[in-house]
Amino acid sequence: MLKKSSIPSLITRAVHLSGMLYDGEGMDHVVIMMHSCLRMLYHWLGTDAFRSGMKQYLQKYVLGNARTKDLWAVLEADSGKEVGKVMSSWTRQKGFPLITVTHSSQDTSNEVTVTLRQSDEAWEKDNKEEKREWGVPFNVTSRSSPKVPIHSGLLIGDECTFNLKNLDITKDWINVNPSGVGFYKVSYPRDLLQLMASSVRDGSLPAADRLCLLIDQQALTVSGMTSTKDLMILCEAYRDETDPVVWRSLCNCLGEVKMMVREDEECSRLFSKWCRWLLEKAYVRLGWDASAEGDHHLTSLFRRRIINFLVDAGDETVLAEGARRFEENIATSADLSTSTYAAKLKLGGNSAFDALVALSKEVDSAEIRRNVYDALGASDQGEILRRGLEFSMSEDVKSQDVKYIFIVSMLMPFLQRDLTLMCFCSPSARSLSWDKA
Fold first, then answer.
1. Going from the N-terminus, what domains does the chain have, and what CATH number goes with each?
2. Partners of 2 in the beta sheet?
3. Residue 222 in contact with residue 256, Cβ under 8 Å?
4. Which end of the chain is more exposed for a tag (fewer CB within 10 A), N or C?
5. Distance between CA atoms of 185 and 212, rounded to whole angstroms?
């Protein structure tokens, strides 16, 4: 069953504005859903038809009242497509479908038969509601035509089948959700994934498609519908990636896998080694400092995530540079200060701990103190973490700041979590906690 944390079950029903904030689902989810559905509708109808229909709708109901079905009716009359039937399936029921792709072809022919099958029972198997179906507009692109669709269609019911001519499926991948404009997840067979991974490596797959492919596979892996191995093989294709938005999603994938393996010491060690290899080129390209011309803010976020991952993975080059910057008091951007503190702590042990504690007492900046606390809580050294937890209960740490060390340490592997719980469950710690409160 797909976890709600990986693929939210968004409410997609008619909602009265007066009760939206108290509807059990956040207003943000409703806004995100409506934007996604309208984006899908826009690409299905086309720019001209959508604008023409919206113009007629606004003119017809100017200074008057209208309902959702009135908008669908105008767009349907203008475009000649089944807008009402399709869009009602999105606005009057929750969730969204999983589209599974299968294909077959004759060895002597360049014609491929593709089948798309929609399902929602795989997402919430224990749901007692009636089976849900959506009207799913889709486009298909390929390696030979990555930006211009080679086929367009509408999936109504359980499945639909269509043929693609002049396509060698042994060399040419197909993408049934180009640019991610469709409000659904896609599951591809392994052979198509391997072909798409090769286009990720050489950059021929557009950045938006690289992003959506990664997001979908991450969600399917977290749900248990595909293997972690397949996700990691796909991630390896992104080693030369340069787009910061795609890298952000890749870092999210790595974070998910890290949470899966963190309880097994050997798996965690091998995963850290793999991360060091995967992120090596990105670190060499980005370094610690922004370019002389300045970086895009997404590049700065990308740099922080990469360096944080490498510090956590124990990359010797990154640790040495981080510790050097701390010792020589080299100016480093605020979002990288936690990485310098953590690097110093990994290499310096107790002496580094004393230096960081002294720093937290000396500075007036709440941000610097919080970054120090984050580094102390993230330590993988038992003695350092124990001292950090004891320090968090001292008078030198404000009561509202104790949570930073505690929360970060609870996200660590089970040995750190056990140590944290032992510390905070001890009678003396409970007494200190009440006193600080």
1. 1-95 (1.10.390.10), 315-436 (no CATH)
2. none
3. yes
4. C
5. 9
